[in-house]
Structure formats: C-alpha cells, structure tokens
Request: fold
Amino acid sequence: VKKGAKIMYGESEMIKCSIVRGGTSKAIFIMKNELPADPILRDKVILAIFGSPDLRQINGLGGADITTSKLAIISPATIPEADVDYTFGQVSMEKPFIDYGGNCGNISSGVGPYAIDNGLVTPVESVTTVKIHLTNSGNILIARVPVKNGKAAVEGDCVIGGVPGTGARIEMDWSRVVGPITGKLLPTGHVKDEIDVNGKKFTVSVVDVGNVVIYVNAHDLGLTGTETPAQINADKQVLDTVEGIRGKVCQQIGLVADWKDARTATPYQPFLALVTKPVSYDAYTGQHVDEKSIDLVARMYLMLSVVKAYPGTATACTGAAARIKGSLIWDLLSDKAKNKDILTIGHPTGTISVNAVAEYNEKQETILKKLSFDRTARILMDGYAYVRNSVLK
Reply:
C-alpha cells in the first residue's frame, strides 16, 4: 500500500536497501532519500534495520560482527568535484549508537559498483572512474571500476585475503585523502610520540590518511604480533592498555576533552594497529604465510576489539606511514621494503598490499604521489527492509 511517498506493508514501512560486500566487509546500502531527514529519526530507523543494539542483531539485517555491522548512505553528489556522495556509519551492536566519525576503505570499494548499477554514474567500458565524496571527512576518493555490459563487473582474477574465490579488480586511489580527520598527515606534529598508560611509556606513531591510525609495536604489549583476534580479545589487560593508549591519543589530537571518554564518544575513530616485523606464522585461516612474502605483520583494534581482517583505510594509512622517515612503521621495514613501491601486510586472514609512492621536500617531509590498493566488491541483494510503525513514531 502506498501512502504518499511511503510504501507500507501491514504495520511496517518498506525501505529499499541493498546488502553489499566491499572488500572484507559487508554493509547495508541505503539511498539517502529512503531515510527520514531528521537525523534522530533517521538513526532510529537505521538501528531498527540492523537490529541494534543486540550482539546477535537477530531482529535485523546486521551480521553480528564489527565487519558486517556497517552502513553506507548514498546520494547524488552535492559538490561539483564528485560523482556520488557516500556517508559511512559504524553501527554499534552494544548501544543505540552509529559512529559517523570516520571512513571505511573496504565498504568504499562497493560505492562505485553500487553507483553504476543504480544509475548515479554513467557506465563507461571497460573501466569507469568514479569520484566519491567522502561526506564523513569531505575528501574525494577515486575508484576505478571494471564495467561489462553496462554494469559493474563481478567476475575477475583478483584475490584478496579474507574473501573466498576471485572477483573483478577495483583500484582504490586514496592519494587525495590525506588529513581527513585532523587536517594533517601527522596529527600530533611528530613522527613519534611517547604515551604514558598506568606509568608505562609506549612509543607510537600517529598518521592521518583515510582515517587516523595509531601504530604500536606489539612486542611492547608483551605480544608476538601473530596472535589471532580471539586470543588478543581474551586478554583484558592488553585490551585495557590498548584502549588507554588510544584514549590518550584521542585527547592529544582533540577528539575528546578527557581520554576516558574515547571509549563511548569515538569508539570507531581512531584505529590502533599492533605491528611487528615480518615473521612466519599461521594466519587466522590456518594457512601458512612465508615471512619473505610480507613486509609487515599487523593486528587492527577498532570498536573496542581486534578485528579479523585489515581495514582498507588502515591499509592506505599504513602505506603512507611506511613512507614517513623515522616513523614506527619505517623503522620496522627492511631496507628492501623501504625502497619498493608495493608494501604487503600480513593480517589474520591473509595479506593485503598497498602501492605507496612518495617524494620528500627539503625538510624531508613526506609528499604522497600515489597511494592505492585493489579490492573486489559485489552487490549481494536488493530488496526492502521492514521497519515497524512503532519505530517511526
């Protein structure tokens, strides 16, 4: 039954949406005009669609995992430099809260295919360049999407760690997304900082590309760096220390007034990466990864736990950090890795590579010339979510 612009089904309103896999994550994609204009009511509707707050998200479409409780709001571009607007939201499973404070590189890879298939961007074969306005930070992200028969291509030979099979290769160019959160490549103004947590000092590097990422040597927390996410998440002392470091950095760069508030005020942003030199280890999948095939081992902490893969924005940021002389990442790299364009990161479900090329001015400051990585993406479902009338009231 249609009531004005709304489509009703019994005691529910029908909201058109899609489930899209982007890289190693999945999100609910919703056109902006499908949602209420009022931000409070909008978020109530989104939480109802996901089934949050609930760790199982059993009464909604959320996947009960940090990497699948993600939101993409899409609309025609509102600035002339872009083809499409994209707003990212990390939907909490524990509280009625959506964090719009950062970007998501994996979900970003689904925006180009979604925009092409939904008529927001005119397809050009064999590759369509899509300029994506990241409304969370105001930057432009470039996606180069393979196209076949007027639609985003699905089949291809691109393999990414954490996703079974192969897919069409999408190149994601992050070279224009420098300083999106703080306005600076180095938010603290330093290549390295000392952070005090419970009387112990930790050396960190804080870099802002795609999202802010805090880099910490895993060995400084008594870890090998090759633990599974489940193993690290089971260690409350390590997680408390990691969150303490993250909170102190949040306060230092102005994201919160009191570092203790970071846990609730900004759980998504910034990320924290536990990094080590390359070693041979059994990945989360049980597959063996040869230390010669990777340049760095990393575990990513966000939304108060260590996740199963490596975020796309963190991949771009790590590529940038690898080109900052004297950073914690720079110090961990071999001489060979410092001088090649492609950096390969070992994470719990495999590897991810980033193409990072930089130049240096007379002050030896880093100027990024290229920063890209490959992803695959696919629209999994188009349909309607049913939102009860009681939510809308």
Residues 282-288 have pLDDT under 50 and may be disordered. The chain has nine helices and 23 strands. The first strand starts at residue 2 and ends at 3. The CA atoms of residues 212 and 335 lie 26 Å apart.
